[in-house]
């Protein structure tokens, strides 16, 4: 058992980046993980540890507080501080959940409260408390058409569908446009919601090769013919997880190839409004074959479980509406009503601008802390950090979790066994910029100690 004055488990803190208190916590987590500290081992008193380390007492107090939050240590009055016997609790710093940060300069909870209260006063209770099965009311579809116009021309309402989030609309597209055992083509690293959806509906996924500009048209043609696929899934703007933005020229090449092959395009486009000047959407380049899905959850808040779909024509929209009736039934009337009011008033645009400003600030924090070589844009909600092959991203994610940090390894996004090694870091889930800095500094510390990870592979 380690004695109360023993700090041999602490490495040279000067060699680790980040705040000193986090260095102590990370070292404690590592020592418990590798067995240098055992459950029940007693730690030095805080004053003694501060003296041994040559730091002030406040630093050690803050480190112990964070370690207790992570369930690494516990204290008993009169006896001291001991290493806990259980596993660390769930990470307290979340870089895995890809949600928008609180918009800069806007009290979003306050807007939600007043918005719901106002909606209840102005709207018919019967309308809000009834079933609204299908594609949405004409007013809701018109609001959706206005929102979707950012990706192209204003659409007739009979081509617009309202759904309870992007996943519900993607489910409806998959069910209406494919059959069991059909193959859907996608990037080798793609949205995990699609992977889960394919498994749940017994559809297959096949990866299409890419290069620096995104999916390759020649590989798309080969994959489509090899698998007999009829549907292509794309997330071309701030792609999840790689944060890449497909250039216009490549989009046009893929649109021509999809036309040649007779492919239906499913364009998942949750992040478009975070960019000041995004390339044209496939909805504009290939409207006759594109199902375009745009959710409010990624540019406003997950609180609004509302998304809009543009279908190639009215008949396709009817097929989607039928699939919605058979799965999620409808979009929630209260949330959809509030979302549409914010769209009509312009408040949705103001909130999105606030989210964009906060996302820009958080991307700048990441640039100042992490080593160069990652993929990001000025206003994205996430970034992609490539890794050298010496350490798989899943192993690094396990190490991070033991230190109280949640990150998303490439394996969570992989279609098949051949995929790039790296991490997706979501920047919006931490409650403020200071907590984000702590999380990124902790990750930088982990990366600096990983085998072969002194520099990311560019």
Automatic annotation (TrEMBL):
InterPro entries: Aminotransferase_I/II_large, HTH_trans_reg/aminotransferase, PyrdxlP-dep_Trfase, PyrdxlP-dep_Trfase_major, PyrdxlP-dep_Trfase_small, Tscrpt_reg_HTH_GntR, WH-like_DNA-bd_sf, WH_DNA-bd_sf
Highest taxon listed in the record's lineage: Bacteria
PROSITE patterns cross-referenced by the UniProt entry: HTH_GNTR
Limits of the HTH gntR-type domain: 18-86
Record keyword DNA-binding present: yes
SMART domains (alphabetical): HTH_GNTR
This protein's name: PLP-dependent aminotransferase family protein
Organism (species): Mesorhizobium atlanticum
């Amino acid at each position: 058992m380690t004695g109360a004055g023993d700090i041999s488990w602490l490495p040279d803190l000067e060699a680790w980046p980040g705040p000193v208190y986090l260095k102590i916590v990370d070292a404690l987590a590592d020592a418990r993980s590798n067995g240098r500290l055992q459950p029940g081992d007693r730690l030095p008193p805080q004053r003694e540890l501060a003296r041994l380390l040559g730091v002030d007492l406040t630093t050690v107090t803050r480190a112990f507080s964070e370690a207790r939050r992570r369930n690494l240590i516990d204290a008993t009055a009169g006896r001291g501080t001991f290493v806990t016997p259980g596993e660390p609790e769930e990470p307290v710093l979340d870089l895995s959940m890809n949600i928008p940060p609180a918009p800069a300069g806007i009290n979003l909870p306050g807007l939600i409260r007043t918005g719901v209260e106002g909606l209840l006063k102005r709207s018919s209770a019967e309308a809000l408390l009834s079933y609204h099965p299908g594609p949405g009311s004409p007013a809701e579809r018109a609001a959706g058409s206005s929102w979707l116009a950012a990706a192209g021309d204003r659409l007739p309402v009979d081509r617009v569908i309202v759904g309870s989030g992007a996943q519900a609309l993607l489910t409806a597209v998959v069910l209406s446009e494919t059959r069991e055992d059909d193959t859907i083509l996608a990037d080798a690293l793609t949205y995990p919601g699609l992977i889960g959806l394919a498994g749940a509906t017994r559809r297959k996924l096949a990866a299409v090769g890419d290069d620096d500009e995104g999916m390759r048209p020649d590989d798309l043609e080969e994959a489509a013919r090899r698998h007999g696929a009829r549907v292509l899934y794309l997330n071309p703007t701030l792609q999840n997880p790689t944060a890449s933005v497909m250039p216009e020229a490549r989009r046009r090449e893929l649109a021509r190839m999809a036309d040649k092959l007779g492919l239906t395009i499913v364009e998942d486009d949750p992040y478009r409004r975070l960019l000041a000047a995004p390339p044209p959407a496939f909805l504009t380049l290939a409207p006759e074959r594109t199902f375009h899905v745009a959710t409010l959850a990624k540019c406003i808040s997950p609180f609004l479980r509302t998304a809009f779909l543009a279908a190639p024509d009215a008949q396709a929209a009817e097929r989607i509406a039928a699939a919605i009736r058979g799965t999620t039934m409808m979009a929630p009337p209260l949330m959809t009503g509030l979302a549409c009011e914010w769209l009509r008033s312009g408040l949705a645009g103001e909130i999105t601008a606030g989210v964009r400003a906060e996302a820009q600030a958080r991307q700048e924090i990441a640039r100042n802390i992490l080593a160069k070589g990652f993929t990001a844009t000025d206003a994205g909600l996430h970034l992609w950090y490539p890794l050298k092959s010496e350490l798989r991203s899943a192993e690094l994610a396990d190490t991070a979790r033991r230190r109280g940090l949640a990150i998303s390894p490439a394996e969570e996004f992989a279609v098949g066994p051949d995929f790039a090694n790296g991490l997706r870091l979501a920047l919006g889930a931490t409650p403020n910029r200071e907590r984000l800095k702590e999380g990124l500094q902790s990750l930088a510390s982990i990366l600096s100690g990983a085998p072969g990870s002194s520099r990311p592979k560019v």
